[in-house]
Design a protein that fits this description.
With 314 residues, this protein is an alpha/beta fold. The chain contains 10 helices and 10 strands.
């Protein structure tokens, strides 16, 4: 449902809220640019759900495939999944453990490969009991801001010419969904949990003032959200073969994520004050635990916003 059209000249609240949103974004980019120049280095809904006592279908020994397991979110998902007894495989371009000294990550099978290659994805999906898609990048090759990925990316990767939002987000997810569908052709067969890390802003069309904010957003952000929504749409269209679990976090952080720490209070304050298109931020540990719990629990499906993530991770 799209919010009714609002004339900002008659809506000081909408105008102020939009200004707040873009002031926060401008601060975020400014911090990243200045951090990059200094060479600073750092460490590391719409829910169809249940009560938290629902039976779990994923048990120790089950196999989990994480697309993008070396990234900021992906590596945390891998660690939490190992804690829960999963056999974890990660597919990434580097195929390397991002933290070689980490005891939990040393138990992950790190596969080097391109998720844009259908055969590569087919070969890994066929052995998986569940799939997590945590691949993504904030600034794609066409954004004009690619160097900022050195700061914002958990794996400190820089996009190449193929690194568009459509390729990295939509096409890689489509390959995984196609692999699942081709290997589960029998109608009525048990669905496989498929968890996707989307973005809170993907829900802007459904919240008050969201369409107006997005209309004022830079082109790269619009394309970023289009790719996220395309994956969400494909997941809903494949409910015969997957159990779709869509996580929509706002800013994701931990105490080592220096690029976002200064604006975390701004987002949280805006959400607490009731700004409808700004969600509370989510710690990466909370998101990762919510993803693993969602995979385990047959009753979890659909969109998970920050209240549901916090409940799942509790």
């Amino acid at each position: 449902m799209v919010a009714p059209r609002i004339r900002t000249s008659r809506s000081p609240y909408a105008r102020a809220a939009i200004i707040l949103s873009f002031v926060a974004f401008a601060l975020y980019v400014t911090i990243n640019v200045s951090t990059m120049h200094r060479g600073l280095k750092y460490g590391v809904g719409n829910v169809q759900s249940r009560g938290r006592v629902a039976a779990t279908s994923m048990v120790p020994g089950k196999k989990l495939l994480v697309l993008g397991g070396s990234g900021f979110v992906g590596r945390e998902v891998c660690k939490r999944a190992i804690d829960e007894g999963f056999q974890v495989t990660s597919l990434s371009r580097r195929g390397e453990n991002p933290l070689p000294g980490d005891e939990k990550l040393s138990q992950v099978a790190w596969i080097k490969g391109n998720a844009l290659d259908q055969k590569t994805v087919d070969g890994l999906v066929k052995d998986a009991d569940a799939v997590v898609h945590s691949m993504g990048l904030l600034f794609d090759v066409n954004s004009g801001l690619t160097n900022l990925n050195l700061i914002t990316s958990g794996s400190r990767s820089v996009p190449d010419e193929s690194s568009t939002y459509d390729n990295i987000t939509r096409r890689t997810a489509e390959n995984a969904l196609n692999a699942i569908k081709s290997q589960r052709p029998i109608f009525g067969a048990k669905t496989i949990p498929f968890a996707f890390v989307s973005a809170a802003e993907a829900g802007w069309p459904d919240v008050q003032y969201g369409p107006q904010v997005e209309a004022s957003a830079p082109d790269w952000l619009k394309r970023y959200l289009i790719a996220k929504r395309n994956v969400e749409f494909m997941m809903e269209a494949n409910k015969a073969t997957i159990r779709p679990i869509i996580y929509r976090p706002s800013l994701i952080w931990n105490w080592g994520k220096l690029d976002v720490l200064p604006i975390i209070p701004i987002f949280n304050a805006a959400n607490a004050l009731g700004v409808p298109f700004v969600d509370k931020t989510v710690r990466v540990e909370t998101l990762a635990q919510a993803i693993v719990e969602g995979i385990k629990d047959d009753g979890v499906r659909g969109v998970q916003r920050f209240p549901e993530m916090e409940e799942l991770a509790a």
